[in-house]
Amino acid sequence: MITGGSRGLGAAMASLLEDQGVEVIAPTRDVLDLSRMESIAAYIASEQGKGFDIIINNAGINLLNELTHVKDEDWQIMLQVNLTAPMALIRGFSPYMKAQKWGRIVNISSIFSLVTRENRSAYSATKAGLNGLTRTAAVELAPYGILVNAVCPGYVETELTFVNNSPEQLAAITATIPLQRLAQPHEIAKLVSFLCSEENTYLTGQTLVIDGGFTCK
Predict the structure, then answer these.
(1) Cα 127 to the chain's mean position, in Å?
(2) Ramachandran class of 101: left when φ > 0, alpha when ψ lies in -120 to 50, beta otherwise
(3) N or C: which end of the chain has fewer CB within 10 A?
(4) Which tens digit of pLDDT belongs to each residue from 114-138?
(5) Catalytic site residue 123?
(6) Active site residue: 123, 144, 155, 202, which one?
């Protein structure tokens, strides 16, 4: 099950996993509205007895504003979608994984959980919280054969990247990336695919940065 699987990174992950023979469920917002706890609870209840072997918490929102101008409602919606919803989905579906003694959970975080830039206080805070949730979940679920990791992409060629950055900003950013380009969605998807697979037998509780070397400088 992958959230935010209809476009961008999520679509690339879903496509690659399907190509590898994984049955992918990517619920649309009318089925699972991550901004509403009652929708999350209803979705979990509807899937009880079936469960998922893999959960990818990919959906996220980034509403830009200066710290002194962050609206309460923007803070709350980012906290809900970026952090509370992943917690609720892990809490709701991990019992199935525990019962079968196998599971893989990947939380899509961000380099802005580790470094930051202007106008991203709420986004950085919620993604840093997601890293903490990842580590705690990894420790608690490890005895049941469930591996939990976070992936922190850098700048990726997605619609959201072009919405949040002007062409001039992206040119300046690209110049600071050692590989001198933005990532392609399929490059992030390949890392996520490994973390979800049976090939991953020992990697858990980690926050994995994939940013072309951006955070090295």
Answers:
(1) 9
(2) left
(3) C
(4) 999 899 999 999 999 999 999 999 9
(5) yes
(6) 123
